[in-house]
């Protein structure tokens, strides 16, 4: 009966969407207030797992293959992804750490920060080529070396010359090598972020989806991963106190909930935790108190939406139908929208059976605030499909706006393509001159969250510009947008850049030429992402600011200029005008 109710509700939504499709236009009202909800936007949300180009701000070296990576010899094992084979896929070099240093060197060249994965499953690949027989050759065996978090002895000297003939690989020695080469986490080229392995909840879970039974034959327990997180974090921070540790790097919702039905998952739930992530945060906080230092800097999860089209095709699949495109473009609402849940939400098993956990970002934030306040939130793998299709570009641009608006600290897309690149670039380099979306979120809302999304920002210390990302998700019709801005500044003009369903190339389009009383209208074509940059005229006596240019405020910066430039004979009318603009 419940499924029948859900089907009828979805049918009604489909009919409503079709009705929109035949309308002549869509009228949407957008409200912006530059003095409300001002919150920082992290520069680390525009990340990638595949390197990408310099439009990305941070790059992660992660994924299944990194769980068994041996920094001493660069051998690795992709687990279930490739026949449980030990090989030199990452690097054929015998130089210790060469794969990671090549990765970090590329990031330094592109002025990008890095996330480096540490190995925690217990064993890593030795320099023995071949497919590992899971019955007779899983670790411990001659295919693997043991991982030890803290060496408990002097590091190799010079750094990067580890003993490769012993039975162990040391994580703190690995970090010491990176520090010796690039500096500490707070230094310009230092490695700032470390992932505490990758998707430990599915290393070995008794199912076909298990990734690494060759190095961790038994299903990991909640307590095991927590204990290992404490140990590796202590080892790393004893070498680099400012390194930021990210965990548990969970693969998805089943991992958030029960650590993929770990053998001991019922004990945490029986102690009042709503899911595994509560337990993990609480225990990391308690151990941090004992250690006298923060051991978890960011709660790290992966998010691959389970949303499907009406035919049951997951949105991350390459199906080319209007139904799929609409499902993909609506899927970001599961991150934030409390109305987009059963029975009116997406088609997914999470929404059908676990809608009380949605929307997911507020749920994650609530866990952090309850069990380990001030911990950041990282999403080091996510993907919405359609990487080379406009629907994927629109979904990704929407997600990036949501990440900024709802306080995600670090995010990195898994995979990539022309439209994903465009979605990142519209925020980080929209004019090919490294101009970016603002670093401070301000209030924005729209009257039609099905057809559109809006995100607004300014730069801290510079309010002459207002940046708007405005998205038209309708496949057929343009949006006639009415924009109402509440602000101390008077905006007089605006330039607009966009990508759309005809090209992933970002180009400048029709300017905003008529703004009256901080209101204007503008037409956004169907399936288009716009970056609007609105310009305010600085007051007459606004000559400088903290960034060395007018900031649309008359303040102490301008007073200094005024007193230096106020020539004799003094015109006290100037002083009166200055005082009036400053509000004296």
């Amino acid at each position: 009966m419940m499924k029948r109710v859900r089907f009828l509700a979805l049918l009604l939504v489909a009919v409503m969407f079709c009705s929109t499709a035949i309308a002549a236009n869509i009228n949407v009202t957008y409200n912006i207030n530059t003095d409300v909800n001002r919150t920082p936007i992290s520069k680390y949300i525009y990340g990638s797992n595949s390197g990408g180009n310099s439009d990305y701000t941070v790059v992660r070296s992660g994924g299944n293959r990194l769980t068994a990576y041996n920094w001493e010899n660069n051998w690795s094992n992709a687990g279930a992804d490739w026949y449980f084979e030990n090989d030199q896929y990452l690097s054929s070099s015998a130089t210790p750490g060469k794969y990671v240093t090549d990765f970090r060197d590329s990031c330094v060249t592109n002025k990008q920060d890095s996330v480096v994965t540490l190995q925690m499953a217990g064993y890593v690949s030795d320099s023995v080529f071949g497919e590992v027989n899971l019955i007779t050759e899983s670790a411990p065996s001659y295919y693997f070396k043991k991982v030890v978090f803290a060496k408990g002895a002097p590091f190799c000297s010079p750094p990067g010359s580890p003993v490769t003939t012993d039975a162990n690989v040391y994580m703190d020695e690995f970090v010491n090598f990176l520090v010796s080469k690039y500096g500490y986490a707070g230094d310009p080229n230092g490695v700032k972020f470390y992932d505490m392995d990758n998707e430990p909840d599915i290393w070995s879970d008794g199912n076909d989806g298990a990734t690494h039974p060759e190095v961790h034959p038994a299903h990991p327990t909640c307590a095991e991963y927590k204990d290992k997180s404490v140990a590796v974090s202590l080892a790393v921070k004893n070498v680099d106190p400012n390194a930021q540790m990210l965990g548990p790097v969970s693969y998805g919702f089943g991992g958030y909930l029960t650590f993929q039905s770990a053998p001991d998952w019922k004990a945490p739930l029986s102690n009042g935790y709503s899911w595994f992530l509560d337990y993990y945060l609480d225990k990391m906080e308690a151990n941090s108190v004992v250690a006298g230092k923060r051991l978890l800097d960011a709660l790290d999860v992966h998010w691959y939406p389970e949303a499907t089209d009406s035919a049951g095709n997951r949105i991350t699949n390459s199906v080319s139908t209007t139904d799929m495109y609409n499902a993909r473009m609506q899927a970001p609402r599961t991150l934030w929208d409390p109305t987009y849940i059963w029975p009116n939400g997406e088609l997914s098993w999470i929404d059908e059976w676990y809608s009380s956990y949605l929307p997911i970002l507020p749920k994650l934030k609530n866990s952090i605030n309850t069990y380990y306040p001030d911990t950041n939130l990282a999403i080091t793998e996510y993907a919405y499909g359609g990487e080379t299709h406009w629907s994927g570009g629109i979904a990704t641009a929407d997600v990036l706006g949501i990440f900024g608006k709802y306080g995600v600290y670090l995010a990195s897309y898994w995979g990539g393509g022309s439209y994903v690149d465009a979605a990142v670039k519209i925020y980080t380099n929209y004019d090919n001159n490294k101009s970016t979306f603002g670093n401070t979120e301000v209030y924005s809302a729209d009257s039609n969250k099905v057809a559109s999304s809006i995100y607004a920002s300014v730069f801290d210390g510079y309010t002459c510009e207002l940046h708007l990302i405005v998205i038209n998700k309708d496949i057929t019709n343009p949006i006639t947008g009415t924009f109402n801005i509440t602000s101390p500044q008077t905006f007089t003009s605006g330039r607009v850049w966009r990508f759309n369903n005809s090209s992933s190339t970002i180009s400048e389009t029709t300017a905003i030429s008529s703004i009256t009383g901080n209101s204007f209208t503008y037409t956004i074509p169907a399936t288009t992402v716009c970056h609007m940059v609105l310009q305010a005229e600085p007051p007459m006596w606004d000559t400088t600011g903290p960034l060395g240019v007018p900031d649309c405020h008359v303040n102490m910066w301008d007073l200094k200029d005024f007193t230096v430039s106020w020539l004799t004979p003094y015109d006290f009318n100037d002083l009166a005008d200055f005082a009036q603009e400053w509000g004296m």
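The domain at 2-37+443-536 is CATH 2.60.40.1180 (Immunoglobulin-like). The chain has 14 helices and 24 strands.
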